[in-house]
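lol so apparently i was supposed to do this last week
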Amino acid sequence: MGLTETETIDPDIAAIHCDDWPLRPLTKLIGTRENRFQVIFHQSVLDEIHIHGQSTTDIEICGVLIGTGYRDAQGPYLLIEHCIRGNGARTKATNVTFTAETWANIQTVMDRDFPDKKMVGWYHTHPGFGIFLSDMDVFICDNFFNLPWQMAFVYDPLGGDEGNFIWKSGKPQRDPYLIQDDVTPKSAEIPLISVADAVNSHNQLATDEKILELLIRVRRLETRQKQLVSAVVFLTAFVIMWIWFSPVPAPPVMKPATQPAMQPAMQAPIPKQIDHTQPVAAPTDWLKASLNNANRNRQ
Ligand SMILES: [Zn+2]
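anyway here it is w/ zinc ion bound
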């Protein structure tokens, strides 16, 4: 059964015929994929529902879910890829109703933004009163979302709980859902490369590391050489400066020799005592002449 066909009697996921659903393996999945039909939300859609629900917590708000039916090795799955807010819906504190205006607005957005997608279900909030489907909610499911693969989602923006409902035996029953992470930034994704590229890249890295190691060794040797030359130059300069400025050694100070005590033999000869009793020796000729000159000058 295709997405466009309708079924109004006792809808059940067992009645899903998915032979024409595109094959699409799942990636970045949060949760365990089982071998059966499951609902999978894009993380971005859950984020949008949370934002919408938390924007108004005194009354219920609603919207519709946009997606595609796919298949993988485990069977069919419904991927919820977008949502449209049910602006203009008539709401009460514990009830929500899609009006003609709401449907018109939703159809306008569908045609404009998602012409190739399907309306796969609906969501609404239960601010503060938990996850279940009221009689009015089941009425909406029965009348607007009654294909075996269509679903309903309820979010409590005050309690924080949320639940997914799918058709089982003609009644929407709560069923676990999975999440596909579609919000990881592109910059955080690891690019896929071939094994050959990986090996080449590894070899190139190894070669680069060896070259780098060699360069480091050469650099160390250069540094040591420079240090050695600097040391020699410094030592030479130091020696020259030391020789140049070192003071001339003063001659050894000659300490005055201690005068030895005079030896009796070196003592001056004691002058002879003049013996006045002896006649003075006759003056010599030069003495006589001198005396005569002195007498003449006196006269
Ligand atoms: Zn409700």
